[in-house]
Amino acid sequence: MVVRPFAPRALRALALGLGSAALLAPTAARAIETIKLRLPLLDTDFTIRVAELRSPQALMAGDSDLAELDRATDGVIGRKLQAVLQSNLPLELRAVVRNAQGSPLLDQVLLVVGALGDIDGLPDPLQPAQFQQAMERAAAKGGISLLDVLEQLPGESVTVQLGRLGSAVQRFRRQRLPADQLIAAVPPVSSEGRLLVAGLSTPARRDVSISAPHRPEPLAVVVVEPNRGSTATPNRLVVISHGLWDDPSNFEGWAIHLASHGYTVVLPRHPGSDQSQQRAMLLGQQPPPKPEELALRPKDVSAVIDAAAQGRLGLSRPVNTQAVLVAGHSWGATTALQLAGARPTDSRLKQLCDQLADPSRNLSWVLQCNFVGTAAAAALADPRVVTAVAVSPLMRLLFDTESARAMSAKVLVVTGGSDWVVPPGPEAIEPMARATRSGDSGHRLVLAERADHFNLRSSQQDGGGPLRGLLLAWFNAAAQAAPGTAPQLPGGGWGSPSHPLRDVTTALPRVVAPAAGQP
Fold first, then answer.
1. Of all helices (H) and strands (E), which one includes residue 332?
2. pLDDT digits (tens, 9 = 90+) for 472-491
3. What's the CA gap between 469 and 188, in Å, rounded?
């Protein structure tokens, strides 16, 4: 594991982003008196004096820009701002900072937050150990509000560069533009037919624990299968991998729909990056997910396949464990790509992770850049996986440009046209345009209109959600395809009325040109 040190810029970002860095310096240090909001296009700052925020009376009598605005609105602005600034910050932040020191994941968060502003006159450098001391002093005081932080923050003033925020918004809009163009150019697939309707089998759900040699504790999995005695076909095994800080329950709608049509579905809980790990991190009991999880997650899925082959899942009927189908969302989609044969690499991670101005930079880079130094060890293809569905995958930095050619399994990538966490342009459309340029790769890209990063999932109550027909169509096609041949999506019947779906594979070369220097 490569541990990247805190940069001075990142430390400034922590003061802004986590708020509790107010107590970093000795109490004798000069505290910040002014907050300046720097407005884009206007050569001026909007000033706020920290002392004016303690009471409505102080604000009404003040002389800052905020005080004038507060008087003009008869105190409405001041009351709302004070409610926010005087609310206590969660004390758990102290433990989060303590456990996250040295984490590339936290370093990336700080880098992004720091791009939005500066603390003028902040002592430099600051040492990470000071954060823990500050949290301890804060805990002794009781509740800490953001106003407490501002009053004790060493420095002269805080300048928030709203123009930088505007630039980030414009970049995201540009990253969505290829998806908007494809949605306008390609008609949606019909959303009527048997693929969207539940099958004849009644799914049964069980919680199971299995041993996994790469995990110190048993691996928890959810099994959803056709009711005992069912003869529904195709009787194939599907494994679904959840995303970062997510849970199998958010994908049981997918599982139930597939099981009703004869599939046996297993959903592992990835212990190093699931919801319980997130809760433990926020309580200060664990650090952020370790970079090693990039390799552990596909090993979880392979362990599930092993358990099915060895009869340790207690399945009601045997399944073909030599021709397994995999699906995943977000980080789980990246896991699915790894199993299909995509090769993670460090090259672009090392080159681009600190480039805040790169036009392809997006929020998913925070997670992708966590894998600097560990990516190359996570090439863990499982030859038993014959096809995969990757929903909102992280791709741009993590996989080399030749990964598609190395994949033995055929992959269906699905991305939301309005996804701001993993934007469609850099993270799906551009990589898939390169992957399908030959025209015979067998991989497909489907765009979901009005879909963000989260509304393509499906809990038990959702009936499979907007992707239920597509998942069933792709896996049916894979089950029927001859060995070594690509699944063929039917021309219709797998669409969604809520999020119209489009197979844009053949339209990709018309919209996205290959980047300079790429094959």
1. helix 331-340
2. 999 999 999 998 899 999 99
3. 14
